[in-house]
């Protein structure tokens, strides 16, 4: 199995001195947009772009900004010579790889998945019954995506805790310890996860059912099919791509609706149809994301001369608050026109394949919860710093207590 864990890690230029400063990274992003929209970091030999159009260009234009990169800011697994690997490839080879995986993400699959996601959400919200204080992160945002993906892949949901543990070890870049130690842990988690999934794939080959692994076994393009190993690796990749991201989206929705703009919860309770648009505004306003690429040929498209082989980071969250694209961008406004043009799901050939699933999970989670509880408030003792954890997006909520009333 040809798996590597990030060769040379790019250290971040944003050096926040506390988790709260990191949570409020939008001030720093604004500063960079206004003062250093195209910024070269000589220590790391990395370019950084902060404006909406520039971020979009980096994500779209693989001829100038390739995904076949030697360096990255996250030590995620790379399965380089393998069709399960979408991340480290460019068109045209990327197209076929993506098309095979996309066989499991059709609009029809999404329709079939909806009742399954609803049933899982109902169960989680039912478990909150009788409690006056609920930690929404631990009770809903964390368990929902991992149970959903285990169910959709077709692996036993009783194994969700160990699956979550493997997924965290593999894809969270911020563990304590030396790089060697982190790599060793990741290798081990990868091996264990691989050995867990492999027999499941073999079994399903003999008995195809209604799940993503079976869809990937069936998938065929120009006579090409995925091997067992590629199906296992694709499944691991989906967990990595979808778990922490969707957890953050759901948690951040509650934060925006109750803290950034506290009138929102009531508005959504009165009109559920506003929920999808509110989710788009959270994706634009409070979702930390950045992506990296390598410069494929010398270029001066952004002004200064950038050299082939240098790394470039596209600061998606900075683009999402660029006033050239969004009026009054620092305002959280669920009625905003065109907020779905945010870049949080990427842009161009690598646009997130799981975006419709993530949107559906968030919509169902919020609607089910909001329908159940008429009033929600934050405990008086709430202090943000007690509820933050270091994460891929610098700082995310590890807990968020809510006081609820039916
Ligand atoms: C809020 C939740 C999510 C966010 C913010 C998010 C964000 C992204 C972004 C920014 C990319 C583009 C990466 C690049 O340009 O290099 C991406 C790609 C991808 N995402 Fe998501 N994602 C989310 C949820 C999911 C889910 C639930 C799944 C599937 C279960 C998923 C599967 C993928 C896959 C397979 C790709 C690779 C596409 C390609 O390279 O062609 N994502 N995602």
Automatic annotation (TrEMBL):
Origin: domain of life: Bacteria
Alphabetically ordered keywords of this record: Heme, Iron, Metal-binding, Monooxygenase, Oxidoreductase
Segments forming a coiled coil: none
Pfam families, A to Z: p450
Keyword Oxidoreductase: yes
Molecular function per GO: heme binding; iron ion binding; monooxygenase activity; oxidoreductase activity, acting on paired donors, with incorporation or reduction of molecular oxygen
Family the UniProt entry places it in: Belongs to the cytochrome P450 family.
Name the record gives this protein: Cytochrome P450
Organism: Thermoflavimicrobium daqui
């Amino acid at each position: 199995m040809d798996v590597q864990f990030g060769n040379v890690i790019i250290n971040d230029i944003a050096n926040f001195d506390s988790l709260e400063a990191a949570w409020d990274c939008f001030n720093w992003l604004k500063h960079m947009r206004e003062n250093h929209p195209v910024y070269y970091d000589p220590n790391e030999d990395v370019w950084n772009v902060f404006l909406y159009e520039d971020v979009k260009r980096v994500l779209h234009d693989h001829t100038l900004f390739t995904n076949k990169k030697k360096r990255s800011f996250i030590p995620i697994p790379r399965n380089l010579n393998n069709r399960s690997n979408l991340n480290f490839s460019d068109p045209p080879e990327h197209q076929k790889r993506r098309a095979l995986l996309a066989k499991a993400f059709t609009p029809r699959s999404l329709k079939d998945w909806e009742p399954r996601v609803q049933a899982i959400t109902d169960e989680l919200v039912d478990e909150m019954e009788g409690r006056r204080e609920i930690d929404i992160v631990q009770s809903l945002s964390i368990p929902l995506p991992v149970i959903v993906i285990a169910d959709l892949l077709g692996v036993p949901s009783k194994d969700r805790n160990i699956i979550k543990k493997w997924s965290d070890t593999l894809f969270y870049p911020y563990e304590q310890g030396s790089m060697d130690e982190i790599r060793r842990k990741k290798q081990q988690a990868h091996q264990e996860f691989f050995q867990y999934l492999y027999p499941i794939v073999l079994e399903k080959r003999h008995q195809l059912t209604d799940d993503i692994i079976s869809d990937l076994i069936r998938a065929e393009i120009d006579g090409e099919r995925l091997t067992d190993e590629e199906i296992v690796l694709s499944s691991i990749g989906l967990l990595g791509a979808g778990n922490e991201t969707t957890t953050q989206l759901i948690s951040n929705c509650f934060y925006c609706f109750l803290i950034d703009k506290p009138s929102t919860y009531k508005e959504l309770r009165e009109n559920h149809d506003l929920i999808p648009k509110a989710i788009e505004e959270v994706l634009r306003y409070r979702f930390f994301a950045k992506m990296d690429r390598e410069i494929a040929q010398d270029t001066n498209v952004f002004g200064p001369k950038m050299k082939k082989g240098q790394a470039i980071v596209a600061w998606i969250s900075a683009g999402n608050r660029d006033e050239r694209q969004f009026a009054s961008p620092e305002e959280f406004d669920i009625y905003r026109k065109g907020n779905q043009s945010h870049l949080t799901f990427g842009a161009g050939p690598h646009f997130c394949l799981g975006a419709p699933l993530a949107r559906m999970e968030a919509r169902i989670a919020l609607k089910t919860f909001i329908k159940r509880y008429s009033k929600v408030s934050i405990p008086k003792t709430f202090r943000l710093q007690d509820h933050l954890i270091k994460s891929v997006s610098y700082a995310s909520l590890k807990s968020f207590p809510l006081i609820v009333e039916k």
